[in-house]
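Researcher: Here's a chain I'd like modeled. Treat it as a single chain, no partners, no ligands.
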Amino acid sequence: MAVPPGVLAEAYNAGVERLLASYRAIPATAPVRLAKPTSNLFRARVKNEAPGLDTSGLTGVLSVDPDAKTAEVAGMCTYEDLVAATLPYGLSPLVVPQLKTITLGGAVSGLGIESASFRNGMPHESVLESDILTGSGDLVTVSAEQHPDLYRAFPNSYGTLGYAVRLRIALEAVDPFVALRHIRYHSLTDLVEAMNAIVDTGGLDGVRVDYLDGVVFSADECYLSLGQCTTTFGPVSDYTGQDIYYRSIQHDAGIVTDRLTIGDYLWRWDTDWFWCSRAFGAQHPPLRRWWPRRYRRSSFYWKLLQYERRVDLVDRIERARGRPARERVVQDVEVPLERCAGFLDWFLSNVPIEPIWLCPVRLRERWPLYPMRPGHTFVNLGFWSSVPVGATEGETNRLIERKVREFDGHKSLYSDAYYSQDDFDELYGGEEYDIVKSTYDPDSRLLDLYAKAVQRR
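Model: Modeled as a single isolated chain. C-alpha cells:
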C-alpha cells in the first residue's frame, strides 16, 4: 500500500534531524563517514572508531511526478528501490547503474554509468536540484542556478565536499520490454567502428538503439549488445536462475537476439555481479542449483568478499599451493573512443584479466572533478579480478594508471589508486576543487579527496 505523502515527508524530516544531530555528535578531530550497511567501494580504508552519520531516515523515494517526469529521492535511496517506484509509471532514471544497492547519492558523488550513457551521460547529469550537507554543517540547496560551484564540483567528490540528502532528478519513459541484439565481432577495430556509428546515429541498420554496451573476451571474440525498448509482448529470458546473462551473449558469428522485461534488463548484471560470482563458485552448475535465488545478487557477493578479506583466504590458499599472493585489479577507466582499440590491444597483451566490459558515454557538460570533454565519446572499460603480485605494491594497478593517462583517459576512484599528489591534482580538479572545498568545508571537517581516494583514510 502506498504511504501517504504527508507520512513520507514527516519521516524524511525526522531523518534529516537525525542526520544533523549525528553530524554534531562527531568530534571535530574525527573523520566524518556515513554509517550505512552497504558499500560499493573497493578500496580499503583506515579503521575509524568514531560514530558515522546516521542516514537511516534517508533511504526512500519521496515522490514521483509522472507528468513532469521527475522524482524526489532521499540521498541514501538505492536504485533498486528507486526503479521499483518509477517503473509502475512507465518511467526510469536516465541512467541506472548496474548494481541494485548503489545509492543515488553515491552514484552522483562517486559517478556511475550504464548502457544508456551514450545518450544520457552519467547519473549526475540528470540531477535538477539537490540538498547537500556540507562540511560546515549546513544544508545547502544546489542546482545549476543555486550554488553552481558546489553543484558542478560535487560529482566525483566522494563525500569530501558533503553528502547528498535529497535529490530531484529527471526521468525518461520506458517500455515494458527490451529487445536485444548481441553482435559478434572478430576484431577490436571493427567493434569500435560499429560502436562509433551507433553512438553518432542512435541506431544500426535503421533500427533505433536505446541501450548500448559490450563485452570483450579476447581480441577476436568481442560483442556489442544493442537494446531497444518495445511494447511487443512475447517470451522473455530469465537470468536470475540457472542461466547466466553474460554467457548468453557468446556465439560463433553474426547476431543472436533475446528479450527481457525492462526490470530484468536493468538488473541483468546484478545476479552474477557481472561475471564476478564465478569467484565464489556460483556459476558452477551443481552449486548454482543449490544456491538460494535470494543470495544471487551483488550485495551478497560483496559480503562474501568482505569476509574473504578479513580471513585472507585466497592468499592463504595461494601460499599453500606455492604460488604468489594476488593483487586485486578492480577498476573502471574511460578512454576516448578513437583510442579504445589501442588500449584494449595493450591491455589484453599485458594484463591477464577477461572479460572486459565496454560502455560508451558522452557527457553534455564539463564537470571539474572528472573533466571529460563534453560531447566527445569515451568508452568505459571495466575489469574486475586479480593478478599475481609484482615486485612493488600495486604494480599492475600503477601500470594501468600510467597507460590510461598515455591514452588521454581517466580512472574512477572507487577502488585502489596510486597517483602522486601532483598527478592527482592535474587529473581530478586541483585548484577548482580546493576553492570549492575551502568555501563549503572551511574547517576541513571532511576528508580531502586525495587523502580519501589515494591514502585510503
